[in-house]
């Protein structure tokens, strides 16, 4: 099997498509951080507390 065939098999096995790779390349070329550098999960409670306080103020008006 050629290298190209092996790469295609890997992509299929991992559920990746050429369109996703093209999107990642465009993002990289435009200076976006790699997907692994973007923090995942919930935001810290401190960040949410400030946002909640702003919303409470708006509701009271």
Count of strand segments? 0
Fraction of helical residues = 55-70%
Q: What's the helix-strand series? A: HHH
Distance between the terminal alpha carbons, to the nearest Å?
68 Å
Count helical runs: 3
Number of discrete domains: 1
Please compute the radius of gyration using only Cα atoms.
Answer: 21 Å
Shape: elongated
Low-confidence stretches: none
Instruction: Name the structural class.
Output: mainly alpha
Largest sheet properties: none
Structural notes for this entry:
This protein has three helices and no strands. It has one domain (about 5-60). About 65% of the residues lie in helices and about 0% in strands. It is mainly α and about 60 residues long. It is elongated, with a radius of gyration of 21 Å.
Summarize the structure.
By secondary structure, the chain is mainly alpha-helical. The protein contains three helices and no strands. It has one domain (3-60).
């Amino acid at each position: 099997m050629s290298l190209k065939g092996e790469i295609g098999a890997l992509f299929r096995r991992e559920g990746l498509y050429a369109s996703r790779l093209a999107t990642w390349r465009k993002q990289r070329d435009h200076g976006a951080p790699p997907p692994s550098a973007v923090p995942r999960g919930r935001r810290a409670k401190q960040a949410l507390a400030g946002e909640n306080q702003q919303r409470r103020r708006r509701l009271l008006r």
